[in-house]
Amino acid sequence: MTTIVPESFATRWSLVGMTALVTGGTRGIGYAVVEELAELGAVVHTCSRNESELNQRLQEWSVKGFTVTGSICDLASQYTAEDYSMIMATNLESGFHICQLAHPFLKASGVGNIVFISSVAGLVHANAGSIYSVTKAAVNQLTKNLACEWAGDKIRTNSVAPWFVKTSLIDQLISMEVLEEKKIMSDLESRTPIKRFGEANEVSSLVAFLCLPAASYITGQTIAVDGGLTINESFAGMSLTRWSLVGMTALVTGGTRGIGYAVVEELAELGAVVHTCSRNESELNQRLQEWSVKGFIVTGSVCDINNVGMNYPKPTTEYTAEDYSMIMATNLESGFHISQLAHPFLKASGVGNIVFISSVAGLVHASVGSTYSITKGAINQLTKNLACEWAGDKIRTNSVAPWFVKTSLIEQLISMEVLEEKKFTSDVESRTPMKRFGEANEVSSLVAFLCLPAASYIIGQTIAVDGGFTINGFP
Ligand SMILES: NC(=O)c1ccc[n+]([C@@H]2O[C@H](COP(=O)([O-])OP(=O)(O)OC[C@H]3O[C@@H](n4cnc5c(N)ncnc54)[C@H](OP(=O)(O)O)[C@@H]3O)[C@@H](O)[C@H]2O)c1
């Protein structure tokens, strides 16, 4: 199969020309993040407290052809005898201060990015010690504050929250007998839908994705990489394999326009064979023709599958029984049924993936009609149910929740005068920290990432692609 990689695609999925600072990069998740960013073309600087280990890593990275520099430093400058101060200083204050120090450089770059490594212990009780958990919850909140405060400086801030990943931190806890190996393993298996620990490079892939230009409308998010824990109450191959969909087949419903169209292109560019559908034959044929010229393998059928998003925004008191049934059938029931139908094929593949297109309207009130919003809220819950129920069948399920993206769906709402263009645009700008609409390919990039082998420990998540809208309480 010949896949044409246009320059814009290559640029969106590359970190060439970027510089990254990764604290604590000699072992564990930090080590995997250094490798992931360097493989994607970034120049990386890292640090640790152990000089000989740092030098050994720098030597290895140089042999691999990565541009990585390092320094010996202890980021926790305020050690005291008290555990509390020590953990606060190491896990929280240092991150806060380093962000303050980095701010002018990130701002000057025009494409600044901060990715905190938080923990699921900052989202739920995880028996990891309350002080540790408090610092991680504070990091998750800091993510929201910085995302909104610095959006105008073109700095995106996100946080990645892993569950147990086998690094030296965990080995240390086992050796201190804080965790008893056998018991942890069985507890983990019973509580985690994926039934295993994560690998460091299953965390670093998300860190790297969040740094890519492809993630340009994602800010303020805390995303769990936890094999489904929080929604249940070796170098695993070259990055080329982990960051590729060659050999995979995808079904994208409603692919001739808008977000679906961008998803078809993104998956095809990453090497997947794609099948799509829409109701309009001539538009579908035109798209298939364009994709064939681009070298993509895309097939299509004309059908009304009722598995796309539609909306009649009205005051709740004015919805008729027909409006209600139509929106439920199109936005929710169809997605439920197509997942049931697809289940045997996804299971047989051994690497099945479902990515629902939800909406921020399923997370907060967004003035687009209560019926539409409840279907999206239900999709977010279905995401959690299928993620846990089908984890054993090796099917991952996630959901992507966009804020306003200028597609024909929005143009239609404007033409129906449900949204008045000028006021609508200024309302969106005033409430969104990034002060703009999203683009369809800023949503499709996350859909594609969630389908990649690189995302193999992410399940049950609903991730907003919203320029910070849902984490902005008071502008
Ligand atoms: N745009 C936004 O701001 C936004 C924000 C949040 C969430 N979303 C969600 O994103 C999803 C896609 O929206 P979009 O804005 O990309 O819409 P869009 O630009 O209107 O594109 C919809 C696509 O689906 C096809 N389609 C529509 N109804 C169909 C049916 N019954 N059977 C088969 N194909 C059908 C359309 O082709 P035909 O019309 O020719 O069939 C077209 O290819 C929806 O679930 C929506 O709720 C959008």
Automatic annotation (TrEMBL):
Note the SUPFAM superfamilies from the entry.
NAD(P)-binding Rossmann-fold domains
Task: Name the domain of life.
Answer: Eukaryota
PROSITE patterns from the UniProt entry: ADH_SHORT
Record key words, sorted: NADP, Oxidoreductase
Matching InterPro entries: NAD(P)-bd_dom_sf, Sc_DH/Rdtase_CS, SDR_fam, TR
Q: Give the residues annotated as coiled coil.
A: none
Which Pfam family would be a valid example here?
adh_short_C2
A GO molecular function term, named singly, is:
oxidoreductase activity, acting on the CH-OH group of donors, NAD or NADP as acceptor
Q: What is this protein called?
A: Glucose/ribitol dehydrogenase
Q: What broad taxonomic lineage does this protein's source fall under?
A: Eukaryota, Viridiplantae, Streptophyta, Embryophyta, Tracheophyta
